[in-house]
Amino acid sequence: MALLLALSACTAEEAPVVQTANVARAPVSEVVEAPATVGARATASLTSPAAGTVAKLYVSDGDTVKKGEILARISAPQARDRLKEAKKADRQAARPVSFGGAPSVPSLRLPNGIDPHVRKSFAQARQAARKVEDKAIRRHLLSAIDLAERQHRSQQKALNGIVGGLNRMLTSFTGQLGAGMSGLSSSMSSLQAASRSQTRAALKAAEETVEGLTIKAPFGGVVTLGGGGGSATPALPDLAELVSGGGVPAQAAGSSAGTIAEGVPVGQGETLLSVTDVSELNLRADVDETDVLLVENGTRAEVEFDAVPGAVYTAEVTGVGVTPQEGATGGVSYPVRLSLAEGRFDDGSEAPDPKPGMSAVVRMIVKESPEAVAVPAAAVVTSGRDTVVWAVVGGRAERRTVTLGAEGDAYVEVVNGVKVGDRVITRGADGVRQGQEIP
After folding, report:
1. What is d(CA 58, CA 281) in angstroms, rounded to the nearest whole number?
2. What is the CB-side half-sphere exposure of residue 249 using CA atoms within 13 A?
3. Mean pLDDT (whole number) for 253-276
4. Percent of the chain, pLDDT > 70?
5. Please, are residues 17 and 268 in contact by the beta-carbon 8 Å criterion?
6. Strands 52-57 and 70-75
7. Backbone dihedral region of 58: left (phi > 0), alpha (psi from -120 to 50 degrees) or beta?
8. Residue pLDDT, tens place only, 49-91
9. Where is the sequence biased in composition, kind Basic and acidic residues (predicted)?
10. Which residue from 67, 96, 299, 373 could staple onto 317, CB 3.0 to 4.6 Å apart?
């Protein structure tokens, strides 16, 4: 509904000093405007995992590819040589190491009792002594033989005790040696396991590098040859460094590639091409700190592009960032993400899809009242902490403190303080006094 304007009486030669309008119902929308940039659903920079040459290039600039499609192959003999070395080192590390058991130490043995030859000698001595005719001499000889035999038995017993002690010492030594050999075997097994772990890591890294020489699309999208850097594929690890415990080296920074064509040499980590998924476009807007609290998920927006004059696109807020950043004018702003939908020209025809990187202006509708009690924005003045509208009652100015709702560029919503049909001052309100006569 159009608002009715009435000019105060004035002479034809004088410009009007005060203008008024009637309060009416009208749709009012409060908009937060911010600069924005178009982004793609996803972008990936694909790099060479090793130094080599471009053996085969299957795509051109602007080609549309599917996920998993082969884009290029890199020839890198050095990478394949390192894979062979890694396989050889892993096989060697897998061989079992055996140290055998502890050495066997024989026990010392002595005959039990008197040796048969000694016993026979004692028997022969007794037989000879019994042939002596003199009883006294015979008795003396037999006593001497018995004494000698007892002494021999005693010595044999003592010797057996000494030998038993030596055997016990040998047994203890054998056990200790066996335990030492067992501990050594366990330590060497642990060392072998650690070495195998390192060679396996080196083998896996070398296999991944060789596998990565076939460049594939990580998702569907549009191809751009060359590139402006990006994260590089992890560098091929040095086998000797891994085996010595050096670990996998840090990945190299991606480098910006020049012309990419078959036969062109490429460095490790050099960007070969990029794939951009444009199936879903989004916007990143920088919203000033004074407005960002009004923006929330689901807020509708209208978008205009310099590249598509006369077209308006629809969008919706999908996320509001919390990390502040310096705005274009030096103030603080916050990133706001929006999903971008189709656009239309004034005649209703469909507008073309923008491209990633294009700049835009986003107008987010943060408040909307389709049937608001509305007054022209010029009718609202600020007096200290109060928001004031000057109404005309009985031909005189009357100060009204009001509460505002949605604030549009041309009209604002008044929640209380005036009603539909009231006459308010829209021009010269800042110079009006209470009770002043208004024609």
Report:
1. 27
2. 13
3. 78
4. 77
5. no
6. antiparallel
7. alpha
8. 999 999 999 999 999 999 999 999 999 999 899 888 888 888 8
9. 81-93
10. 299
Between CA 334 and CA 359 the distance in angstroms is: 17
- At 104, which amino acid appears? S
Amino acid at 32: V
Same domain? For 82 and 219 the reply is: yes
pLDDT at 3 over 60: no
> Is there a single domain that holds both residue 215 and residue 191?
no
* Residue of 378, 418, 406 lying closest to 20 (CA atoms): 378
User: What is the Rg, in whole angstroms, of the alpha carbon atoms belonging to the chain?
Assistant: 51
Say if 200 falls within a structural domain: yes
Residues 193, 253: one domain? no
- Tell me the pLDDT tens digit for each residue of 153-170: 777 777 777 766 776 766
Q: Please state, in angstroms and rounded to a whole number, the distance separating the CA atoms of residues 389 and 22.
A: 12
Residues 6+ apart with CB under 8 A from 386: 401
Domain limit, last residue, from 154, 172, 206: 206
